[in-house]
Specification:
This protein folds into two domains: about 240 residues, Alpha-Beta Barrel (TIM Barrel); about 190 residues, no CATH class. A hairpin with a 2-residue loop joins strand 2 and strand 3. The longest helix has 19 residues. The two termini are about 40 Å apart. The protein is an alpha/beta fold. It is built from 20 helices and 31 strands. Helix 3 runs parallel beside helix 5 and helix 12 crosses helix 19.
Length: about 575
Amino acid sequence: MTHAPVMTVGQRRRLTAVARGQAAADLYVRGGTLLNVYTGELYPANVAIAGERIAYVGPRDDMVGSRTTTLEATGRILVPGYIDPHVHPAHLVTPSALARHLLPLGTTTVFADTLQLWELGGLRAFETVADALARSPLKFYWMIRVHAQARSLDEPRRYPLRDLARALAHPWSFAAGEVTRWPDVHDGRRDLLARLDLALRRGQRVEGHTAGAAGDKIAAIAAGGLTSDHEPITAREVLERARQGLGVMLRESSLRPDLVGLLDALKDAPALASRLMLTADGSMPAFIRDHGFVDHLIRTALERGVAPIDAYRMATLNPATYAGRDGDLGGIAPGRYADLCLLADLSEPRPEAVVARGRVAARDGRVLVAVPEPDWNRAFSTREARLTVAWRARPADFRLPRRATYPVIRLVSAVITRLEERAPAEGDLFAALVDRGGRWVAPALVAGFGERVDGLASTITTDFNILVLGRSPEAMARAVNRLLEVRGGVVLADAERVALEMPLPLGGVMTRLGLLEAAAREDALRAALVARGYPHHEPMFTLFFLAADFLPFVRLSPRGVWDVKQGRVLLPRRARRS
């Protein structure tokens, strides 16, 4: 396991020597105008860096030696490297590929989810990835999942307390989360509160997900241990959560571009600017390509009239302070990681150059440093994680039991559903969640996805099994079997052929391609589905969340069609015949 991200006495001695002018800096940023997020001031300042940390900020240059590299910043504004406090780093691309794209955009730190890692490889996968990325110029801090997204009978085996405790003790872990089962927290369920206590007793955070929670429930949720929420969709919900002491993250993502409206909370409570944070949440590659990342969030806040110091604090100092890492992150000051952006103007947060961990990491939109890639074969070591399985699908796998009516899952948006108890109708699609190992199948009917889809199979789902939809069981089987051949991803089949495929051979969730190449494949899939009747704005998240049994109102779960509100199975899964 990697060493903790804490400076040694020797490192601090060197920083003090550089600050006194008695040792040479490694990198000296000369002539810039500093945005001081601690005081709100703008003033001329140079920055001297030793190793990965800042040693000195001020007017002197007596620490510049013959081996010091100088970065000229005359006419530029220096702001801290950007921080996203709630990132899902394995959507289609690897965390490393994401980092390579984000560094030129000014993001130098992310607080990242571990869902895919834990579901596909458990503790071994997390430690493999976290240890490899401990050396990344873009820093990854981790929130540890303490329960699955979709409930299943074997969840206690997959999320054992001893493994969770070990993961939370990793030096780059900062929180438990995200906790999507807020009703269990609200109700004081002992089993879940005990899992949250693994983090709380270490002084760590507990990342919440309280979508759908009415304001009068927030007090019990906060008392139960949740310390943040990124799910408000109105300014009122922002205030309801902030008033109860939760750290509130304002989201602008490919699924929910809500930031403009959420910022209205500042009109009623201007002091919130010292607490609010900005997040791109789980934005897909095409959205990041088209809009940016944290730089886009800052730009949106500025355009909404937020004062520049507040906009930049919400993307730097505020998340660092919330996470308890403001001694390392969030500002340009001695002892902090040397993460800073050089801007032409505060009105444009896309940087001309980026320093990360003391090195010039990007310039003019190009990444200049190497980002380590984890050993994915070690992380995802089982046959089912790699989808090197022998079983193959048959059309009969997708038959429905004989009934007069069925619980139909109607998509009313990209991810929200409603329940329709009725007979099959024109436009309905057969659907199923199929175990990766081929042991069981949960059949269903889905409406509102795309009436001309013959067969679509995907391993992009919060359950990480195989989701399949279509109007033709034969095309559905063809899509599943091709999906198994390419080791996961998304496959679209027409009546007689495979029409499109997006291979994601790393666990069925990630490609080795860069973000721009993944975004192009995402574009192609979206266009193909729209041509077949898909009516919503984000098909990747439709596939991802159809099995997410924490969202309203009906889901296709490993137990079968699941009534979220009533907590009951409406159409059970069955064993799959081999």
